[in-house]
Amino acid sequence: MGLLGSLTMLLLKILLFCSLRIVTAQTNSTGGARALDVLLQDYAYQALVRPKIRTGFVYDGVLPSNLTGIMVSALRLRSGSLRRYGVRMYKEFEIPIGVVEQPYVERLVLVYQNLGNWSVVYHPPPGYMYLAPVLGLLAYDASNLMAKNLSLLDIHASGQPISINFSDIKSLPEGPVPRCVAFNLNGTINFSVLSPDKKCTTFQLGHFSVVVESTAPPPAPVSPMPPGPGAGPVPSGHGKKNNSKVWIIVGSVLGGLALLVMLGLLVPWVHKYKKTKKMQRMERAAEVGESLEMTRVGSTKAPTATVTRTQPTLETEYVP
Ligand SMILES: *[C@@H]1O[C@H](CO)[C@@H](O)[C@H](O)[C@H]1NC(C)=O
Ligand SMILES: *[C@@H]1O[C@H](CO)[C@@H](O)[C@H](O)[C@H]1NC(C)=O
Ligand SMILES: *[C@@H]1O[C@H](CO)[C@@H](O)[C@H](O)[C@H]1NC(C)=O
Ligand SMILES: *[C@@H]1O[C@H](CO)[C@@H](O)[C@H](O)[C@H]1NC(C)=O
Ligand SMILES: *[C@@H]1O[C@H](CO)[C@@H](O)[C@H](O)[C@H]1NC(C)=O
Ligand SMILES: *[C@@H]1O[C@H](CO)[C@@H](O)[C@H](O)[C@H]1NC(C)=O
Ligand SMILES: *[C@@H]1O[C@H](CO)[C@@H](O)[C@H](O)[C@H]1NC(C)=O
């Protein structure tokens, strides 16, 4: 049973390794989103580094080729102006009157992000599918436009909520109801109702999108129109990858257990098999010995059976 013991140890080690992998994968996804925020803040601020910036004017950032698909913009405002007037339209966001930031700064920069096809990479929706890209709105201190890795300002809407216009999403005629999703800055996720005019609302900044529950695709018998790239919902490729990873882990663990059970059965079987083999060998040896004896003892070389099964009956015996 030494073999069995070491196999059990190996299996336990595999299990431990797998669970560690799951934990690190989860911490990486949120860490990745934070690192992206830091990177995008830098690129957004670079759009503001020019001879003359107009306050309240939106400047689009230029991103490196390894971030193609993401859009970033910067809007610099006096915080007093933000509180008194709000921002009527900043891309898809509408900021009402009465918004205050914490800690107080004299000027701030509102960084807008559209994560496009990177949405599922940085904000994998658990069990959902995106109907729109993830849009981010974050606020930073504007006092140093060369600053990197700035800490976020906490922005609260006190009266009316901030609204996000998702008018571009395609309406689903039937199926699951689309919902707003908010990725809060503290790492929690909130779901809320998508209004009939396709708007989501929030009282704080963060990342937002519209999702539907990704149920198993119905067995569509005929679909003459294949979904084109770009059109339609953003596929949750990352979620699938994660799912398949989990399945691989579950599969290998179950496989390992099955192997262990099989080995458990195999060891006694091999034992038994060896025994039977040995007995068969002994029997054969006995048989060989017997036949040798018989040939030695018998007068003829023809093999003779010790017991005659069917006695030959002579017809003449019945004749009177
Ligand atoms: C974190 O995840 C991203 C994609 O989700 C990947 O590109 C990156 O290499 C990962 N980082 C680490 C340290 O594993
Ligand atoms: C993209 O490339 C730049 C260098 O060109 C690098 O600093 C940055 O970390 C890269 N970003 C990602 C997300 O890989
Ligand atoms: C997003 O699309 C661009 C091209 O439009 C591509 O270069 C980039 O690799 C894509 N990103 C992801 C995560 O698929
Ligand atoms: C950014 O700042 C945080 C603390 O606010 C720090 O932990 C982190 O290492 C910094 N990252 C970079 C790239 O400087
Ligand atoms: C939402 O945005 C679209 C343009 O993308 C615009 O036509 C529409 O009027 C906006 N809706 C509201 C309620 O602001
Ligand atoms: C995280 O933030 C959201 C909204 O900003 C809030 O509703 C929630 O209570 C916070 N959760 C924690 C644990 O701080
Ligand atoms: C967000 O979700 C948390 C739980 O995850 C809940 O405590 C909080 O009240 C929610 N906030 C909003 C604004 O719905």
List the helices and strands and how they pair.
Layout: H1 2-48, E1 58-60, E2 71-78, H2 79-85, E3 87-90, E4 93-95, E5 99-102, E6 107-114, H3 119-122, E7 128-130, E8 135-141, E9 154-157, E10 162-165, E11 179-184, E12 189-193, E13 199-202, E14 206-213, H4 237-297
Antiparallel strand pairs: 1-2, 2-6, 3-4, 4-10, 5-9, 6-8, 7-14, 8-14, 10-13, 11-12, 11-14
Helix pairs in contact: 1-4
The protein binds 2-acetamido-2-deoxy-beta-D-glucopyranose (NAG) (7 copies).
Q: What fraction strand?
A: 15-25%
Contiguous helical run count: 4
CATH architecture classification of the domain at 29-230: Sandwich
Which small compounds were modeled alongside the protein?
Answer: 2-acetamido-2-deoxy-beta-D-glucopyranose
Distance between the termini: 75 Å
Mean pLDDT: 76
Low-confidence stretches: 18-28, 218-233, 235-241, 288-309, 312-320
Helix content: 25-40%
Biggest beta-sheet profile:
8 strands, antiparallel
Query: What is the C-level CATH assignment of the domain at 29-230?
Result: Mainly Beta
CATH topology of the domain at 29-230: Chondroitinase Ac, Chain A, domain 3
Cα-based radius of gyration, to the nearest Å: 38 Å
Q: Let me know the number of strands.
A: 14
Task: Quickly give the structural class.
Answer: alpha+beta
Structural shape? elongated
Order of helices and strands: HEEHEEEEHEEEEEEEEH
Please identify the oligomeric state. single chain
Pfam family, one: DUF1191
InterPro entries: DUF1191
Keywords: Membrane, Signal, Transmembrane, Transmembrane helix
GO cellular component, one term: membrane
